[in-house]
Amino acid sequence: MAGKTIIEKILSAHAGKDVSAGDVVWIGIDVRTARDFGGASVVKNLRENYESPWIDDPEKTCFTFDCNVPANTTGYAENQQICRDFAHETGVRVYDVRAGIGSHIAMERGLGKPGEIFVGTDSHLNIMGAVGCFGQGMGDRDIAYIWAAGRNWFEVPSSMRVVLEGSIEFPVTAKDIALAVISCLGSAGALGKVIEFSGPGTDSLSLSGRITVASMATEMGAIAAFLPVNDAVTSYIERRSGGGKVEPVTADADASYDDTITIDISDLEPLAACPASPSNVKKISEVAGTRIDTAIIASCTNGRFEDMVHAASILKGKRIKDGTSLKVVPATEEVYERMLEEGILKIFIDAGGLVTNPGCGGCASGQLGMVGKGEVQLSTSNRNFAGKQGKGDTYLVSPAVAAVSIIAGEIVSPVGLDIELIDFVPDEEFTGEPALETISWIDEGAKKAGRPVPRSRTGQVAECPKMIKGRARIITEPDGRLMDDIDTDMIFHNKYLAITEIDKMGKHTFETLAGYEDFAASVEPGDIIVAGGNFGCGSSRQAAVDCFIPLGVSLVITASTGAIYKRNIINSGFPFLEVTALHEAGMEEGMEIEVDFEKGTIILPGGKVIETDRPASVQLDICRAGGLFAYTGEED
Fold first, then answer.
1. Are the C-beta atoms of residues 312 and 344 closer than 8 Å to each other?
2. Residues 329 and 407 in one domain
3. Could you tell me how far CA 297 lies from the centroid of its own chain?
4. What is the per-residue pLDDT for 636?
5. C-alpha dihedral sign at 134, 137, 140, 142
6. Is residue 635 a part of any domain in this protein?
7. Are residues 339 and 475 in the same domain?
8. Last residue of a domain, one of 237, 264, 291
């Protein structure tokens, strides 16, 4: 028998049986979370699909408010209060608006340990791989089901290895490593896979550096990423989880991998992901001199204390360029308090920066870091898709590059500068206790025994369509090629995340996708969407699937689909097909096509038949049931 990868071992342990890549299994989930933007929809799904509010295990379940904190619209405020009220009713915990980013809170509080499974409505939960935990971002249907049942189905992913040879020295940082890997793999080079990082370059990374690399695996298409858990990280997790031995999971020597990529980081230069894709990576020396208006140091990728020290070491005793702005958002309250106590906060303020309360920052509408038309921004975040943070241009860089550039007012490399790095204690060695504002109502009366009782589905479940006929709506680039990498903000923009009613979502479909702003007005019931590869990359938002429902779209056909998006569309019971050779299939705008969904065949006018990647059995079963909540195929 072949050896096991890390993900195969974790899923085998949680399934209670030996599993391998490609298997579909039911597994128990250790920790279940929902963010402020997805939480209200999770509550809505629970109330609509179960006879009474149901939480499988309140002590393993929590809300984390980090996207829009404090709420700056009435929609967000109402949705956050829906979550608080539900928490009071059911006994789950709330990490409220001053606590910080949910995944970072999880590590600081020891909520996700090596070998465990941590899920939530956050597409960057693969951050948890920095501590050897399997983190999986999901849509609100997935999470609601898990909150009720404590388990869910998984298709065991295959794995690939990325070996980092050599080492780096500041001001080259882990962000530059992450961008180098994306430059090598592209936006879909690890699509649907798990990345196992190894090699001396990986071993030399601090916990903060590991978080940065694991976070940006999402932008490579990966489901998750694991970095070796060394003794320092093990000790950190043991302290943070209240003691008790934790055992990291390691792959077997004879484990099977789809591919092994080796990258030498010894001579790595600072890098930037240029507009408008995280994979559009260039050396800083190639874009040096580009005028900038603003910079933001923030996000789950670069909001740790070490990131703040890197930037502060450059800004100390200096001022940002007149006419520019600098925004700083600590990842958590613990990071914020350390910045205050150790003088880092004052350095940013003295330099002319604006420091705000903990949170995500720079990733979604309503957060710090939005850019207007013509504005150029440097961001330490993880995504710079067109329109995601406004109509301006965003370059993704390290905190060091952001700091040195905002002083100059143009992109500058920090290499060769006389920088005295401020002495600090790395996160994995920091022994202070996180001071988090939490609202916790663990009401014994709210805990229930038994299994969740679904609401009656009589008359509500539609049979999975066998034959689908419709007009092809082809999503193309200006030159006519099928458009790849259509992210969730292009499908349903983050500025509408406060909307929870599905019937109100349709009119915003493709609203920010250049050339398709009027799609919702032109679509007809039965239309079939055809798009290129990595469709639905980006966020975990369920709305990017649900927005097609009120428009009457009957089917989505893609060359390939983003990993989280695939789960979301399957769990909705919404028909979709993947066609590996779709770019050469010859479909045209407005063409009437016929699809045998269960066989996975597409018939074009004239009788030409296109074979697709046939729907998996779990997809067909969920579709036939009418969606995840009505699905009864779970193994006991």
1. yes
2. yes
3. 19
4. 42
5. negative
6. no
7. no
8. 264
Please spell the DSSP secondary structure of 340-398, one letter per residue: HHTTHHHHHHHTT-EE--SS--SSSTTSTT-B-TT-EEEE-SS--BTBTTBSSEEEE--
Same structural domain for residues 221 and 108? yes
CATH number at residue 599: 3.20.19.10
Residue with the two structure tokens 């008359």: 459
How far is 171 from 173, CA to CA, in rounded Å? 6
Give the tokens for residue 615. 């729907």
d(CA 293, CA 378): 8
At 229-256, the pLDDT tens digits run 999 999 999 999 987 899 999 999 999 9
- Answer yes or no: is 454 within a domain: no
Q: Are strands 592-596 and 576-578 parallel, antiparallel or unpaired?
A: unpaired
The enclosing domain of 53 has a CATH number of 3.30.499.10
How far lies 627's CA from each of 168, 182, 334, 560, in Å? 48, 34, 41, 21
Token readout for 281 is 């990576």
HEC readout, 172-199 = CCHHHHHHHHHHHHCCCCCCCCEEEEEC
Q: Are 103 and 527 in contact (CB under 8 A)?
A: no
Q: Is the pTM of this model over 0.85?
A: yes
Q: Is residue 258 domain-shared with residue 285, that is, in the same domain?
A: no
Residues with Cβ within 8 Å of residue 606, at least 6 apart in sequence: none
Residue 422 has pLDDT above 50, yes or no: yes
C-alpha of 566 from chain center: 14
CA distances from 106 to 13, 103, 128, 452, 471 (A): 21, 5, 8, 27, 46
Looking at the structure, tell me whether residues 237 and 306 fall in a common domain: no
Q: Within a 13 Å sphere around the CA of 627, how many CA atoms are in the beta-carbon half?
A: 18
Q: Do 226 and 182 sit in the same domain of this protein?
A: yes
Residue range(s) defining the domain that contains residue 585: 467-625
Instruction: Tell me whether residue 453 is in a domain.
Output: no
Q: Which residues contact 137 (CB under 8 A, 6 or more apart)?
A: 119, 120, 121, 122, 123, 124, 125, 126, 218, 540, 564
**Mean pLDDT of all residues belonging to the chain:** 92
